[in-house]
């Protein structure tokens, strides 16, 4: 089991690209972040709701690694927690290297299950021109392009999370499945 920590938590009750930071957020089992527009049992992504409204919401919580912001800075992009729409910003966890089904224990009580990679959209370029191109990378395991803008998860156990809370990683049983976009 590996561990890291939470550096920021964010939510927004209305649809917008960025999410403001908060002192804490509550994760609700089977729903997502309490008070966040993307919380729900079925799809809440604004575009996908128009053609897949009854599918399960595999994007209840968006997690992003803070190390990405440091990678982007020398390239001229200033990005901080919540600005790319994530709910939980982490440090010290290789989110993109986790297999599907990984459990993340956030703080004292909350548990989320990783469902896949966040699929970056063109709104990233509206936030900062040219940033979308930085959200793709060649995956050395498959020699295919992959996404770098975090992972999506569903809430398995309710709990409140705050900055500086620990993140514990529990890998699923073998064989592991590489993350795909959701």
Automatic annotation (TrEMBL):
One of its GO terms (molecular function) is molybdenum ion binding. It holds the Pfam family MOSC. InterPro entries: MoCF_Sase_C, MOSC_domain, Pyrv_Knase-like_insert_dom_sf. Residues 15-170 form the MOSC domain. Gene3D superfamilies: PK beta-barrel domain-like (2.40.33.20). This is Molybdenum cofactor biosysynthesis protein. It comes from Streptomyces subrutilus.
């Amino acid at each position: 089991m590996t561990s890291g920590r939470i550096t920021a938590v964010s939510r927004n009750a209305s649809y917008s690209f960025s999410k403001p930071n908060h002192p804490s957020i509550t994760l609700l089992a089977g729903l997502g972040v309490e008070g966040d527009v993307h919380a729900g049992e079925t799809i809440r992504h604004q575009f996908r709701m128009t053609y897949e409204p009854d599918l399960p919401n595999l994007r209840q919580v968006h997690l992003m690694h803070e190390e990405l912001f440091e990678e982007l800075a020398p390239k001229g992009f200033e990005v901080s927690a919540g600005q790319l729409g994530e709910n939980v910003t982490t440090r010290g966890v290789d989110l993109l290297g986790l297999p599907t089904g990984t459990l993340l224990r956030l703080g004292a009580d909350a548990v989320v299950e990783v469902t896949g990679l966040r699929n970056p959209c063109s709104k990233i370029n509206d936030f900062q021109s040219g940033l979308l191109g930085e959200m793709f990378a060649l995956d050395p395991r498959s020699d295919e392009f992959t996404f770098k803008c975090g992972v999506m998860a569903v809430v398995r156990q309710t709990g409140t999370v705050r900055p500086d809370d620990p993140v514990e990683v529990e890998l699923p049983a073998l064989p592991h499945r590489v993350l795909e976009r959701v």
